[in-house]
Amino acid sequence: MSLRSALRTHTADCHAAVDTLFGSFNLSRIQDYKAFLRAHARVVPSVEQALEEAGIARLLPDWLERRRAHLLAADIRELDDRLPVPVPQPALRCDAAVWGAAYVLEGSKLGGALLARAVPDHLPSSYLSPQGPKGAMRLFMDRLDGSNVGDPAAAIAAARDVFELFLKAGQLTLEAVS
């Protein structure tokens, strides 16, 4: 089984839970949209920083083009909202864990592109807009499949941890706005 297939199979429940939770935000309402972005801003900068410290650029040379924390922060500032305190960085102690965490962030771009359609045109949405080099997702998946990770369990555990960070951040944000 390829690493991509293992990640998809063993994180499907987490992925579904995150999709359900974040699907409950009404992105056509500015308050919900702000809350949605704040929830993401609790997680994305921390995960990106952890990936960088663990050497993602060595595994994914176009990493700098893939980063989105700065776009997220810009959208939040443009909405005259505040950046939240980020969650602690996940521990990414091996290349397999780096691939697992990157899998979640890269996959979130596909969901973001779908969600961007619900954001009114007058609101900033650079974070949800597709980013990165042309064919970035295909290139990422090819590299993921070619990574020859010796410990797929570490990749799966890291991916599940990142999904869990998104779930907790989303739940906390929803509780704060309810």
Task: Explain how this protein is built.
This protein has a single domain, classed as Heme oxygenase-like (Heme Oxygenase, Chain A). It is 67% helix and 0% strand. It has helices spanning 3-23, 30-53, 56-59, 63-66, 69-78, 95-115, 136-145, 152-177. Helix 1 (3-23) packs parallel to helix 8 (152-177). It is globular, with a radius of gyration of 16 Å.
Report helical residue fraction. 55-70%
Poorly predicted spans: none
CATH class: Mainly Alpha
Secondary-structure element sequence?
A: HHHHHHHH
Any idea what the shape is? Answer: globular
Give me the Rg, rounded.
Answer: 16 Å
**Count of runs of 4 or more consecutive helical residues:** 8
- Approximate strand percentage: under 5%
End-to-end distance: 43 Å
The CATH topology? Heme Oxygenase, Chain A
The CATH H-level superfamily is: Heme oxygenase-like
Structural class, by secondary structure, is: mainly alpha
Number of domain modules: 1
What's the count of strands? 0
Mean pLDDT: 93
The profile of the biggest β sheet is: none
Q: What is the second-level CATH architecture? A: Up-down Bundle
Give the tags.
mainly alpha, 178 residues, 8 helices, Heme Oxygenase, Chain A
Note the topology.
Elements: H1 3-23, H2 30-53, H3 56-59, H4 63-66, H5 69-78, H6 95-115, H7 136-145, H8 152-177
Helix pairs in contact: 1-6, 1-8, 2-5, 2-6, 2-8, 6-8
